[in-house]
């Protein structure tokens, strides 16, 4: 740059070299302040989320599904909200589930903690809490993910054999004795295979489960990849990141094709899918969505400031 | 029980066998001593440059063969193959190395291969067993551990190759902050943008496998790479044929449809959907379906089209 | 102070400790880095026995009894064979016999490769089909009306399909390595492929930045709302 070194830094230089501590500080404030305000932003759920909700609502009441929970606190910001909304949906439809994990040894514990929290929330709004072993059975963690998922597809009872469930206040129980497994012969006896993940276990499941429909709940970073699977109809529905969670919370509140406030969708033309208005549907999605918008606005401003700085310095050097 | 092929149809099995044949033929050709051509990708120069720079500075070269979730797989092996080359160059110049492993199996294999490299170079006594380390098999504990190592050891060159996830930017940013020259490659598509943003050179997608084949010239790797090229050409041909066929076929109507293994008459002819096409049947692509269907509402209860609509 | 609040306080301190590296590398960060590593290793060690070896191997080998004393599941004594195979891995520490450690690794690689045949077909079959979309409209009009019949292709959709097809083909040609990219068509295709890849990477970058923000927002929510507002001040 053609500048006199003894001169004070120009505006262009200042704009391009904001101290990173200042930027981090502004970011922290931007991400924190909106959390204290409960503002419900307008939302237009995307097809993938609408299908996730619609297909889950189409499952028979008192049905049976598998949840493969592969997230840990590393991605709590997105995955916990997803898990919460999935549990709320299943609990309200009284659908029993098998809980398992191939992603991380901490995952089953984190999932159990979330079930406990959702149980408490559902109790507040008149729902029935889920009992471990009776309403869901926890198979825990499986180290060899690929082999385990292949076994789920081909011979599901073999993976549960010898596995113990540890319901609170009772001794270990043989997982296969759980009512969830009653009458199960193969994976086809389950209505859906849900995967909540923030890692590459999505490929493991997608490549190996052929006898049961699939739906994924993935972190934001995985959305572009998993959108291809949804578009190729490998997934019946997809919930991606905090937008997916907010979509599902909106759908739970309003339903699909269900009246004036409802989400209208051609995907379910001729069908009326209800929601649960006012029944504690807000969760992590609603709580974080406003703050996320402020953070994204900050990012856009930062990009503009940086580029203006660059343009100014280019002009100055001419 | 145990029949994982039943849903894919004969064509996909034939296609898979064809791909396998392509790869085997080329491995055979490579074994036969034929000097098969592989295009030199630009990223390879960056590898040499990075090691050279570390030697000049006398600071370590740090390598991470990815965060494979379960056991050693092909991606980890390819990364370790590239690291064997990096270690060979580093060993010749007496440059310290650090290989950070995410799981026990990777650690075992990496240590074996790197030790072999030093032995082949006649420098077995210079091999430091602590240069290959197991850090942690918890993702962010691993990221924190490797970041700490980068900062403390002031790595001059870093190589992140293999499976990387959310920790990719943490690692690349940390290495960037100590001024390390970085060459990276993630087999995870989602992380490649971060490496592109933060590293000096990135091997995108299959370039990672090409680099490994080019550097080692192992017949199996070279043959596989060229076999895969043949496979890609076959897929291009298949997609082009399928697109042309579907474009023509979907211009018509059908009066019969294929349901549960047999042709069924339709009440009235309808537009051909993609799932009715020849290629769709050939690839048997329909995944498992939800069994239970919700009852359709009578027309009087349907929402009116004028009711706005988000779609 | 109740136990839950104490637990949260430790978590908040750890969060602040790890975030302190944003200012600069310091002892507080290093302390929590080591606590994190230690906890993770400790947890993994316990889980190795409880979640992997005991439930996946030991209990299956011995079988299980129901509460009434009858057999709930049969034991598979053949599982005992897995022990020496697993132990072979430890021979990596023996200078003389470390070749034996390659046997279990070979088995793992073999099992994995075998599975990939089936996995490949299940994964790519639907993706191939989805790539073969009609590139010419079969209906007049550019935009798809709300009541369009299934299988009808309008102008806008055909255009989308053309872009999708071009992307698939050009990106595939970018990854051809066995011949030099010299021909005009191949060069143009490969360059287009690279540009389209970069556009794709931009989209991924955007969605990932959004995710990272969410993770930060979640930590802030934990500190300010869950710990301070709800935990310390008992506010709703």
> Numbering strands along the chain, what is their spatial order in the largest sheet of chain C?
1-2
CATH class category name of the domain at 60-241 in chain A: Alpha Beta
Domains of chain C, number: 2
Largest sheet of chain C: 2 strands, antiparallel
Number of strands of chain C: 2
Largest sheet of chain A: 6 strands, parallel
Q: Percent helix among the residues of chain A?
A: 40-55%
In the CATH hierarchy, the architecture of the domain at 60-241 in chain A is 3-Layer(aba) Sandwich
- String of helices and strands of chain C: HHEEHHHH
Greatest contact between two chains: B-C, 82 and 67 residues
What's the N-to-C terminus distance of chain A? 9 Å
What proportion of the residues of chain A form beta strands (DSSP E)?
5-15%
Give the arrangement of secondary structure elements.
The complex is a heterotrimer of chains A (318), B (311) and C (236).
Chain A: H1 11-16, H2 20-32, H3 47-58, E1 64-69, H4 76-92, E2 96-101, H5 107-124, E3 136-141, H6 145-160, E4 164-165, E5 173-174, E6 192-197, H7 201-208, E7 214-218, H8 223-231, E8 237-240, H9 241-254, H10 284-317
Chain B: H1 9-31, H2 43-57, E1 61-64, H3 74-92, E2 97-101, H4 104-120, E3 132-134, H5 139-153, E4 157-162, H6 168-177, E5 181-186, H7 192-198, E6 201-202, H8 207-216, H9 219-249, E7 253-259, E8 262-271, H10 278-283
Parallel strand pairs in B: 1-2, 1-4, 2-3, 4-5, 5-6
Antiparallel strand pairs in B: 7-8
Chain C: H1 3-19, H2 27-62, E1 64-65, E2 71-73, H3 82-88, H4 102-131, H5 155-174, H6 184-232
What does this structure look like?
The complex is a heterotrimer of chains A (318), B (311) and C (236). In chain A, the strands form two sheets. In chain A, strands 3-2-1-6-7-8 form a six-stranded parallel β-sheet, sandwiched between helices. In chain A, strands 4-5 form a two-stranded antiparallel ribbon. Chain A is of the alpha/beta class and 318 residues long. Chain A is elongated and about 80 Å long. Chain A has a domain at 60-241: Rossmann fold (3-Layer(aba) Sandwich), CATH 3.40.50. In chain A, helix 4 (76-92) packs across helix 5. Chain A has helices at 11-16, 20-32, 47-58, 76-92, 107-124, 145-160, 201-208, 223-231, 241-254, 284-317, and strands spanning 64-69, 96-101, 136-141, 164-165, 173-174, 192-197, 214-218, 237-240. The longest helix of chain B is centred in the last third of the chain and has 31 residues, at 219-249. Chain B has a domain at 42-202: Rossmann fold. In chain B, 49% of the residues lie in helices and 14% in strands. Chain B is an alpha/beta fold and 311 residues long. The relative contact order of chain B is 0.13. Chain B has helices spanning 9-31, 43-57, 74-92, 104-120, 139-153, 168-177, 192-198, 207-216, 219-249, 278-283, and strands spanning 61-64, 97-101, 132-134, 157-162, 181-186, 201-202, 253-259, 262-271. Chain C is mainly alpha-helical and 236 residues long. Chain C folds into two domains: 1-75, no CATH class; 133-229, no CATH class. Chain C has six helices and two strands. Chain C has helices spanning 3-19, 27-62, 82-88, 102-131, 155-174, 184-232, and strands at 64-65, 71-73. In chain C, helix 1 (3-19) packs across helix 2, helix 1 (3-19) crosses helix 6 and helix 5 (155-174) crosses helix 6. The relative contact order of chain C is 0.06. Chains B and C meet through helix 1, helix 4, helix 5, helix 7 and helix 9 of B and helix 2, helix 4, helix 5 and helix 6 of C.
């Amino acid at each position: 740059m053609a500048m006199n070194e003894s001169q004070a830094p120009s505006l262009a230089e200042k704009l391009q070299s904001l101290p990173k501590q200042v930027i981090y500080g502004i970011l922290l404030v931007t991400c924190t302040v909106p959390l204290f305000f409960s503002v419900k932003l307008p939302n237009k759920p995307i097809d993938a989320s609408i299908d996730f909700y619609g297909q889950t609502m189409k499952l028979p009441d008192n049905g049976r599904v598998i949840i493969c929970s592969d997230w840990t606190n590393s991605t709590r910001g997105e995955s916990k909200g997803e898990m919460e909304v999935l549990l709320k949906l299943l609990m309200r439809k009284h659908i029993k589930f098998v809980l398992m994990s191939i992603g991380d040894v901490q995952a089953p514990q984190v999932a159990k903690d979330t079930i406990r929290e959702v149980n408490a929330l559902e109790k507040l709004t008149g729902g029935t809490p889920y009992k471990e072993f009776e309403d869901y059975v926890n198979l825990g963690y499986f180290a060899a993910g690929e082999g385990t998922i292949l076994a789920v597809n081909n011979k599901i009872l073999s993976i549960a054999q010898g596995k113990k469930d540890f319901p609170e206040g009772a001794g270990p129980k043989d997982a296969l004795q759980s009512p969830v497994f009653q009458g199960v012969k193969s994976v086809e006896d389950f209505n859906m295979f849900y995967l909540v993940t923030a890692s590459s276990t999505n490929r493991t499941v997608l490549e190996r489960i052929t006898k049961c429909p699939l739906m994924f709940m993935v972190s934001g970073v995985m959305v572009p990849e998993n959108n291809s699977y949804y578009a190729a109809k490998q997934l019946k529905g997809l919930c991606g990141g905090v937008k997916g969670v907010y979509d599902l919370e909106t759908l739970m509140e309003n339903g699909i094709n269900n009246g004036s406030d409802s989400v209208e969708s051609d995907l379910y033309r001729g069908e009326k899918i209800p929601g649960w208005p006012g029944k504690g549907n807000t969760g992590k999605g609603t709580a974080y969505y406003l703050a996320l918008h402020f953070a994204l606005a900050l990012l856009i401003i930062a990009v503009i400031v940086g580029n203006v700085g660059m343009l100014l310095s280019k002009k100055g050097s001419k | 029980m145990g029949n994982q092929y039943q849903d894919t149809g004969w064509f996909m099995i034939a296609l898979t066998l064809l791909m396998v044949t392509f790869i085997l033929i080329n491995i055979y050709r490579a074994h036969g001593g034929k000097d098969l051509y592989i295009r030199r990708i630009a990223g390879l120069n960056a590898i040499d440059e990075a090691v050279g720079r570390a030697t000049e500075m006398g600071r370590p070269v740090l390598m991470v063969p990815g965060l494979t979730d379960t056991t050693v797989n092909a991606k980890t092996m390819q990364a370790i193959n590239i690291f064997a080359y990096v270690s060979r160059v580093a060993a010749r110049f007496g440059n310290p190395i650090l290989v950070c492993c995410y799981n026990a199996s990777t650690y075992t294999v990496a240590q074996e291969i790197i030790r072999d490299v030093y032995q082949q170079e006649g420098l077995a006594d210079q091999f430091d067993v602590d240069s290959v380390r197991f850090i942690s098999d918890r993702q962010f504990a691993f990221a924190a551990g490797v970041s700490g190592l980068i900062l403390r050891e002031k790595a001059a060159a870093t190589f992140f190759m293999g499976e990387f996830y959310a920790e990719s930017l943490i690692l690349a940013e940390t290495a960037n902050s100590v001024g390390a020259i970085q060459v990276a490659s993630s087999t995870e598509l989602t992380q490649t943008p971060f490496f592109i943003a933060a590293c000096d050179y990135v091997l995108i997608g299959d370039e990672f496998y090409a680099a490994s084949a080019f550097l080692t010239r192992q017949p199996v790797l070279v043959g596989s790479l060229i076999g895969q090229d043949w496979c890609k050409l076959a897929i291009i041909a298949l997609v082009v044929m399928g697109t042309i066929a579907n474009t023509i076929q979907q211009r018509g109507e059908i009066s019969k449809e294929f349901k549960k293994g047999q042709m069924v008459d339709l009440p009235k002819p309808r537009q051909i959907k993609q799932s009715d096409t020849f290629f769709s049947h050939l690839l048997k692509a329909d995944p498992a379906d939800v069994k239970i269907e919700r009852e359709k509402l009578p027309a009087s209860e349907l929402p009116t089209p004028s009711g706005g609509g988000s779609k | 102070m109740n136990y839950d609040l104490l637990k949260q306080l430790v978590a908040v301190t750890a969060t602040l400790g790890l975030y302190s590296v944003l200012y600069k590398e310091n002892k507080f960060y290093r302390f929590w880095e080591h606590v994190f590593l230690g906890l993770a290793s400790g947890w993994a060690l316990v889980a190795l026995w409880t979640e992997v070896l005991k439930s996946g191997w030991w209990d299956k080998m011995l079988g299980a009894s129901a509460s009434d004393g009858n057999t709930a599941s049969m034991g598979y004594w053949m599982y005992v064979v897995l022990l020496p195979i697993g132990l072979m891995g430890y021979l990596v520490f023996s200078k003389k016999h470390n070749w034996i450690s390659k046997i279990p690794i070979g088995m793992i690689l073999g099992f994995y490769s075998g599975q990939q045949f089936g996995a490949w077909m299940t994964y790519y079959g639907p993706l191939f089909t989805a790539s073969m979309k009609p590139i010419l409209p079969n209906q007049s009009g550019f935009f798809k009306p709300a009541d369009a019949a299934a299988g009808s292709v309008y102008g806008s959709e055909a255009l989308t399909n053309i872009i999708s097809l071009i992307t698939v083909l050009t990106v595939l040609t970018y990854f051809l390595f066995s011949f030099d990219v010299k021909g005009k068509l191949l060069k143009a295709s490969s360059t287009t492929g690279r540009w389209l890849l970069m556009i794709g990477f931009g989209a991924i970058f955007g969605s990932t930045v959004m995710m990272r923000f969410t993770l930060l927002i979640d930590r802030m929510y934990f500190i300010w709302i869950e710990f301070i507002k709800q935990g310390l001040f008992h506010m709703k």
